[in-house]
UniProtKB/TrEMBL annotation:
InterPro entries: Cupin_2, RmlC-like_jellyroll, RmlC_Cupin_sf. Residues 53-116 form the Cupin type-2 domain. This is Cupin domain-containing protein. It comes from Sulfitobacter geojensis.
């Protein structure tokens, strides 16, 4: 029997069987892939990001070229600064939609910070930026 699903496949990711990897966009964060990239053939991605205790962000400005980027904080807090929007403290339960191309930087975070990021596409370019 063939699968009726052509653009996506069924997937489940459980916290107790997931592993965090240090290899990601930022060295002061660890990333746990939720399997969405593979299940959607790269059209979307989702991962849990958590702080590496004791490591701080250098606060470098950057932007991303992508169709969708949403961040939802599940633990702790993080301060982001956005071009034209200023600094924002995101804490447990906070959600932000970051438009494509907006210059931003991670300013600081708690050692227990954890968030979920949902993106489209799964792979996207990141650009170093000067301060706005």
């Amino acid at each position: 029997m063939t699968s009726p699903f052509t653009s996506q496949s069924f997937t489940i990711a459980h916290a107790d069987s997931g592993t965090f990897q240090g290899a990601g966009l930022r060295p002061f964060f660890e990333y746990r892939d939720l399997g969405i990239n593979q299940a959607t053939k790269g059209t979307h991605g989702a991962h849990v990001i958590r702080a590496v205790p004791g490591m701080e962000s250098p606060g470098t400005w950057h932007s991303h070229t992508l169709d969708f980027q949403m961040v939802y904080v599940t633990k702790g807090w993080v301060v982001f600064e956005y071009e034209g929007e200023g600094e924002h403290l995101l804490r447990e339960g906070s959600c932000v939609l970051q438009p494509s191309g907006i210059k931003h930087r991670e300013v600081r975070h708690s050692d227990d910070m954890e968030l979920i990021e949902i993106i489209s596409p799964a792979d996207f370019p990141t650009h170093d930026e000067g301060a706005p």
